[in-house]
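[Q] Does anyone have a clean structure-token version of this?
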Amino acid sequence: MLRLTVDEGSQGQRLDNFLIRLLKGVPKTHVYRVIRSGEVRVNKGRAAADTRLEIGDAVRVPPVRVADRSAAPPAPAREFPVVFEDEHLIAVDKPAGVAVHGGSGVSFGVIEQLRQARPAAKFLELVHRLDKETSGLLLIAKKRSALVALQDQLRERETGKTYAALVIGAWPASRKVIDVPLHKFLTGEGERRVRAVEPGHDEAKRSITLVKVAQRYRDFTLLDVTIKTGRTHQIRVHLTHEGHPIVGDAKYGDFALNKSLSRGAAHFERMFLHARRLRFQHPASGEVIELETPLPAECVAFLATLST
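[A] Here you go.
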């Protein structure tokens, strides 16, 4: 039997989410079963799954069988370049090729490595996600109040997220808004994919991307891309749908060109998509924070090889 006292790190969290994080390896169906049965108690009383926990609440958790994780090695401790940090949040510059969290065949990601590097931190949670292949600004909350406030801003589209993307071909200057619904699906091999569909598609979600030409090259265009919705693979699919896939995109790009670039003099072997700018209101002070991070060295070096 576990008896826990809710601290600041779990304040405002739903009981079900609190237990799911606590009981890693326990199926969610079992977590909800013990809540419904009344075996989980909050301040000695029964509580519903959506009960919001407060500081000082006493939570009693019955014995449950947890999957054996002893065989899985812990994530290696790793710090990432910090762009901004205070007692509420951290903004790091994530390198390309690193997942933001474990799962889907990946043992660990930024968040697991950061928790290992900061064992004294009571609370570290991802505010949003970036694709493994994408580099750039990633927000991590150090308090639940910051997590909720920042995710509310993201949900209400009150943040400015701008990416640098190098695409194949000459992007038309008049094409500034892409408003095309996206549909998420699984391939026959169980891989998650996204496709652009016609408006009115039953399972599609409206997706809006704003595009501005930053620099033209002979065979490529560097774009500033701002997303007004945060759909899975949104930028990658929208740009490919317009006939200008991102350089190095292994899922939606020009596979032959990607292969030739990786074997060429530049040896460019990543996707050219970088979350370069992030604008949001500070979750505690309300101050407008605007963060920027420069293009990674390998992207700068590749651009230097291109003809204008």
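[Q] Thanks! Anything notable?
[A] The helical segments are 15-22, 28-36, 110-117, 144-155, 234-241, 255-263, 297-303.
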